[in-house]
Amino acid sequence: MPAAGGALEDLLHPDAEEQEERTFTDERIFDTIWERAEGGERGNLYRPTPPIARTQRHLFRYFLDGSLRSYFLGTALEGDRDTPVHYAQIGACVLLRRDDGTVQREHLEVRHLLLASKQRLSDEAWRFLESLCQNTPAVLEDLAAPDVISRAYSDADLRVRAGGKTRYKMRELEAELMRKVLRELRDDCWLIADGSLMFQPILKTLQERYKQSIPPVLGVSKNFRKDPQFVLGRGPGAQRLSIYSLLANLKHEHRTAAFSAYDGQVAFWYVRLRPQGAVDYPLMGVVKCELVTPNREPVPSELVDLLSRALVAERNVTPHGRDRRWHAHLYPIYLAEQAIRNAFYSREVIQQLMRWR
Fold first, then answer.
1. 206-218 in b/e burial notation, b at 16+ Cβ within 10 A?
2. What is the predicted pLDDT for the residue at 155?
3. Which pairing describes strands 286-292 and 217-221: parallel, antiparallel, or unpaired?
4. What does residue 46 show for φ and ψ, rounded to 5 degrees?
């Protein structure tokens, strides 16, 4: 599986989204195909998914994404104690796409965070930081407080841990906006959420609202874990595939079988949006899809096929040259991200506003 062109630099280190996915579950071995075709038969390992254009069937109408910007402001010193101080902007946006293809902003929210370690400061110093946030849109957050994402980072490396805390608060904001649009969704009106649905606030919301049916929400990840192993069959003749082996044989406009994750609470599979010859690395042009299964039953293969075919049609238009993840980007998700970033303060504004006395 050769890497050429600009792929090498991107593949040197795991993406933040890939690292985030590891924090949601420790599962690495997946041996249950979590779908059923008509007649109760198991689906094949690979299935064709020719695109269904929006003009044929407009299935995906809402798109949700989040974004963040974080700045290291400096180190606060108090006697022999110290803590890094960060300022972060987090945002989430939901776009609605009309039948004619135009999009409108349904919900957009941006929040401002000031992050420091509470346990590294005295109560008096912490109250002083709180007073700095009064009469401002900023909220003081304890970057050392445990959560599912930042707990993966060492307490000693608080500057890195601040990045995990910021991502966690961004994902919480995404969950809030998702709850606002759930009442608008139905079988012919789906939401695509950027990232994994295994984030607990999102997963819990969908399970509580849709107790016995599959929520009309599809999680799509441009970056995903590269360490899963897939076991096909039982006994001595079982076949074990790494994710590289699984996706190397995944053809253009095809999907893999859906597998069970999170103790049957989530079904996931992979879809190839672009031919391998059009990208720098065979894992590029592939997205991971997730569905929540509140009843913990396999999903119909026909539904997985339909979602995958509609998703393949979303590969165009693509933000080629504007985002290094263009090969796996969905254009409405890209537009939602741009709407958030346009609402953020620029780096120049931050540098002018932030002043140490």
1. bbebbeeebbbbb
2. 60
3. antiparallel
4. -130, 140
- Amino acid identity at 12: L
pLDDT one-digit tens code per residue, 167-177: 999 999 999 99
What burial class does residue 159 get, using C-beta atoms within 10 Å of its C-beta: 0-12 exposed, 13-18 middle, 19+ buried? middle
DSSP state at residue 74:
E
The full set of domain ranges for the chain reads: 1-59+188-315, 67-184+340-357
Provide the pLDDT for residue 199.
92
* pLDDT digits 0-9 by tens, 120-147: 999 999 999 999 889 888 999 999 888 8
| H helix or E strand, kind and range, residue 64 | strand 60-78
On the CB side of 356, how many CA atoms lie within 13 Å of its CA? 8
pLDDT band of 32, cuts 50, 70, 90: confident
The amino acid at residue 65 is D
